[in-house]
Amino acid sequence: MPIERKDRSFDKIFDEVTLDKIPMEFISRVNITFSDGSQTEISGIELQNMDSEHDILKRFEHDGVLDVAIQLDYSGIKEKVSNDVKQVLGTMFKDPDID
């Protein structure tokens, strides 16, 4: 799964994280390949209406799924992590330079 990256410092941190679960808000696209060679893509509104990755798998469980490729919203993850870290550090350190 290709990830477009520009900030190498965040990349290093992200590469060292083990993901057990990906919040649905950070999944931008799911490509499913079936055993007969056909493919389908889930994105946009259709993806937003699903509650979990189990909804995706349940929908295709009897269709001979060969591969599931998940594309993450990398910039959304980075923004969320950055904002959360700034908020926590802001409560610990009253530095006017922290945005």
Report on the structure:
It is a single chain. With 99 residues, this protein is an alpha+beta fold. The chain has a domain at 24-92. It has four helices and three strands; from the N terminus they run αββααβα. The protein has helices at residues 8-15, 44-48, 53-59, 74-92, and strands at 27-34, 39-43, 65-72. A three-stranded antiparallel sheet has the order 2-1-3. The protein is elongated. The protein starts with 7 loop residues before the first helix and ends in a 7-residue tail after the last helix.
Secondary-structure map:
Layout: H1 8-15, E1 27-34, E2 39-43, H2 44-48, H3 53-59, E3 65-72, H4 74-92
Antiparallel strand pairs: 1-2, 1-3
Cα distance spanning the termini: 32 Å
Strand order in space, largest sheet: 2-1-3
User: What fraction strand?
Assistant: 15-25%
What structural class do the secondary elements suggest? alpha+beta
Radius of gyration: 17 Å
Largest β sheet strand count, sense and barrel closure: 3 strands, antiparallel
User: Judging from the principal axes of the Cα atoms, what is the shape?
Assistant: elongated
The proportion of residues forming helix, as a percent range, comes to 25-40%
Number of strands: 3
**Number of DSSP helical runs:** 4
Instruction: Look at the structure and give the mean pLDDT.
Output: 79
Low-confidence stretches: none
Q: In sequence order, what are the helices and strands, one letter per element?
A: HEEHHEH
